[in-house]
Amino acid sequence: MRKIIHIDMDAFYASVEQRDFPEFRGKPLAVGGSPDGRGVVATASYEARKYGVKSAMSSRMAMKLCPHLLFTYPRFDVYKEVSNHIRSIFARYTDLIEPLSLDEAYLDVTDDKMGIGSAIEIAKEIKEAISNELNLTASAGVSVNKFVAKIASDFQKPNGLTFIGPSKIIGFLEKLPIDKFFGVGKVTAKKMNQMGIFTGMDLKRFSEMEMIQHFGKSGKFFFQIVRGEDNRPVKPNRISKSIGVEDTFETDLHEYEDMIEEINRIAEKLFKRLEKADKFGKTITLKIKFSDFTQITRSKTFFTSLDQLQEIQKQALELLDKLDLQEKRIRLLGVTISNFANMEPTYEEGFQLTLF
Predict the structure, then answer these.
(1) Which three-class secondary structure state does DSSP give residue 3?
(2) Is residue 8 a known part of a binding site?
(3) What angle, 0 to 180 degrees and rounded to 10, lies between the N-to-C axes of helices 12-20 and 76-90?
(4) In this structure, is residue 303 part of a structural domain?
(5) Is 77 annotated as a binding residue?
(6) What is the pLDDT of residues 221-279, one digit of tens each?
(7) Listed residue (39, 37, 48) closest to 11, CA to CA
């Protein structure tokens, strides 16, 4: 059995800002967005989260929930520098490190460099090093696979450490609310609720074939993880070939203005992910699923990377403008960026090369 640790920094951007600027400490803080209601919150401090403020929320909604909310611009160069220090701490214990973003990573410590032998002790030492060297807190999940370790890291936030051993995994997952399962989003959770699935125990009542019939390829994944089965290795050279955001709507879109609003919102969320991963690409892809479940994608490739929010929004809307959407109702919209810097181009069929 593997020994896997998932480390997740606590409110990373906001915590760095509160560390560096005393006037933000102990106060509700939003990184990203602005007090005039424009933009989207990238990260909220725990003081702000008590009011319901969370990432990807519009500044306007955040201000309604917390009128005395403070705002600050993100400093991604600082966050990246801190992230590099954190990864250097990880490297003291193992070379099997799979970063997911600037603020979280999987570690395989089955054979740790220091010969400590205990994943729990290693997680404690990593948390202490982050606290002592960076004056920040992290939460850790420890288990025998990636899926359970990730859920465990979120279980006692902030500054938590949760170990879920082999004998406890099944019982833990059976009691876990379905919306706490990593990979189950709002739309999937709603569909599961309609099927009478509210906990892991409910999920286990369905056969693998039934899950595949209802959820496609994801159904097999759900069938396995609720039984604690996850054989994915920690991949130290994990490379993202694309980063995208998509949203399925409870009510189909048919007004063009609503489509524009949703694409702009999705692009904002996508831009935050690109900044967080420090990756910008040359290809933008618009994905549309219609009410009859037919799906199309349209792409455009440039000579230089799209590294500005306004440009991503503009190009996504231009792709939308070229489609005949009369009498069409849209169930899903998505925007993806690929062809990252220093990677070979992966032009999709039907791409358009644009000259500046």
Answers:
(1) coil
(2) yes
(3) 110
(4) yes
(5) no
(6) 899 999 989 999 998 876 668 899 988 887 889 888 899 999 999 999 999 889 888 88
(7) 48
